[in-house]
Amino acid sequence: MTERVQGTAIGEERGVSQWQLAWRRFRRHRVGRAGAVIVGLFLFVLVFAEFLSPYPHTQQFRDATYAPPTRIHIFDENGRLTRPFVYGIKRTLNTELWRWEYVEDRTRKYPLRFFVRGFSYKLLGLIPTDIHLFGVDGDGRVFLFGTDEMGRDLFSRIMMGSRVSMVIGPFVVAISLPISLLLGGVSGFYGGGVDMFLQRVFEIVMSIPTLPLWLALGLALPRGWSPTLRFFGLAGIMALIGWAGRARVIRGVVLAIRSMDFTEAARAVGANDLRIIAKHIVPNLASYLIVNVTLTIPGAIIGESGLSFLGIGISEPMVSWGLLLSKANNASTIQNYPWLLIPGLFITVAVLAFNFLGDALRDAFDPFRVV
C-alpha cells in the first residue's frame, strides 16, 4: 500500500496521523534506530562527561607522556578469572629511537573500581560531587586511550571534547535556521520581484567556496578571544554559509504549499497572510526541517573538526575532537603513537550516526513510502 498526502492515504483513512505513520516507518528502519541509539549515547556522554572521566582533562602526568592505552586484566597470574585490574607501569628511555617506552610492572596491581571518588565537579552544572564511574586506588593509573604529549588522559579529553563537537552543530542550526526559514519563506510565499531578488542573493552566497571562506574567516578571528568566544565565532562562520541552500529548498516547498487547495481555501475565507503561514505553511514544513536539521549537524561536526585540526578553531583549555585529532598531524606521530587517532574514530561514528538517523527520518516522512 502507498500513502498519499491530502487525505487520500490509507493511514489517514484509518485515523492515523502523519506523525504516527512516520513513527511507524522509523521503527522499522534498523539502521536509523542504530543511529538514534548512538546519538543518544553521545548525548549521554555530553551531559555526564565529568562523571565518565577519571581525571580532569587538563591534568598532566609528566612521567607518563605518550603512554599507551592501559591493558585491563580479568585473569590473574594463575589464569583464574578475577575482578578487573591493571598493573603499574615502568618508563624506560629507548636510546636507539630516543623515545619513552612503557612496560607493565607486575609487582604492583591495582583493582579497577566503580563509582570512586576523584576530582570535584558539578553534576549537570548544579550538584557538587566527586563521584566518577571508574578509577583505581592509591598511586595507580588507568589510561583507557593512552596519553598525549603532555601526559594528559586521552579518554578524559575525548569525553570533555564531546561537549564542543556535539554542541556546535545545534548552535549552527540555531543561527542559520531562522535566516533560512525567514528568507526562504518570504521568497516562496510572496514570489514576484521579492522572489527574484532573494533568489539572486541565495545564488551569490551558494557560489562562494565554503572551505576557503571558512579558513579566511577562521584566521580573522582575534587571537585574544577566549575559547568560548572562538566557539561562538566558529558557529557563526559555519552558519554564515550554510543557510542559503536550505533557504532555497524551503522556498520551493513553500511555493508548492501556497498553491494547494487548503491554502487557497483559507485565503478565500479571509485568512490573512500571518494566519496562513502559521496554520498551514509552517506545519507542512516541520517534517522537512526535522530531517534537514539532523543532516546539517554532521556537516558542522566535520567543519569544526577540520578548522580545529588546522589550528584555527577551538583552542586550549577548551577541547574538541578535532583539536585532539590535530595531535596526530604527521606520519611519525601516527606510527609511534597510533592511539592519538582515536578522536577521529569518534568523529566518524558521530557523523555516520547522524546521517543514518537523518536518512531514517527522511524515509519516515516520505508521504509516498510503503507503510
Fold and architecture overview:
- The chain has 371 residues and is α+β, with helices and mostly antiparallel strands.
- It folds into two domains: 10-47 and 159-364, MetI-like (MetI-like fold, Orthogonal Bundle), CATH 1.10.3720; 59-152, no CATH class.
- The protein has helices spanning 10-13, 18-27, 30-47, 49-52, 154-190, 192-207, 210-220, 227-258, 261-268, 273-309, 321-325, 331-336, 342-364; strands at residues 73-75, 81-94, 99-123, 127-136.
- The protein has a four-stranded antiparallel β-sheet.
- A hairpin with a 4-residue loop joins β2 and β3 (99-123).
- The radius of gyration is 26 Å and the shape is elongated.
- Residues 1-13 have low confidence and may be disordered.
List the helices and strands and how they pair.
Layout lengths: L9 H4 L4 H10 L2 H18 L1 H4 L20 E3 L5 E14 L4 E25 L3 E10 L17 H37 L1 H16 L2 H11 L6 H32 L2 H8 L4 H37 L11 H5 L5 H6 L5 H23 L7
Antiparallel strand pairs: 1-2, 2-3, 3-4
Helix pairs in contact: 2-13, 3-5, 3-13, 5-6, 5-8, 5-10, 6-8, 7-8, 8-10, 9-10, 10-13
